[in-house]
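Hi support team,

I've been running sequence recovery on a batch of backbones for a student project. Most finish fine, but this one hangs at about 90% for roughly twenty minutes before it completes. I'm not sure whether the input is malformed or the queue is just slow. I've pasted the structure tokens below so you can try to reproduce it. Let me know if you need the job ID as well.

Thanks,
M.K.
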């Protein structure tokens, strides 16, 4: 099922460009098919699906390719959100980027994802950064071999 997307706010939130159905599904630990409706409000996203309804902050979502890159205002929002997590990105981001590395279709696309992650690597835990590096190198070896 394709999620119905509604923009409720007259002025979209600047970080709404990072909101993807895949990221929201991974954050909420549901499948993409379980999401029925996504409503973009001024300060939050309402995700509704089979037997759940949840608000998500725009600052919970990681940057993605294909949209304007993160700017200083985005980093300020993320850092404010991460204060409760010792100024580190949430573990969900590691799972998200690991998945993006695994499903990259080419080495240049993988490299571009790696460049995006390198911009905020200071906000990742050491273990998380090492696991992302391993996922990146495994994906690169696999793409180069086939």
């Amino acid at each position: 099922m394709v999620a119905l997307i509604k923009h409720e706010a007259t002025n979209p939130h600047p970080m709404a460009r990072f909101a993807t159905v895949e990221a929201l599904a991974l954050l909420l630990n549901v499948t993409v098919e379980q999401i029925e409706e996504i409503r973009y409000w001024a300060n939050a996203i309402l995700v509704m699906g089979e037997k759940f309804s949840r608000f998500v902050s725009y600052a919970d979502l990681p940057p993605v390719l294909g949209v304007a890159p993160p700017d200083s205002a985005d980093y300020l929002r993320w850092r404010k959100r991460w204060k409760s997590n010792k100024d580190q990105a949430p573990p969900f981001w590691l799972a998200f980027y690991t998945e993006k590395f695994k499903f990259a279709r080419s080495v240049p696309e993988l490299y571009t994802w790696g460049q995006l992650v390198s911009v905020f690597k200071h906000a990742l835990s050491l273990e998380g950064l090492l696991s992302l590096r391993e996922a990146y190198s495994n994906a690169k070896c696999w793409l180069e071999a086939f």
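--
Follow-up from support: It reproduced on our side and the slowdown came from queue contention, not your input. The radius of gyration is 16 Å. No action needed from you.
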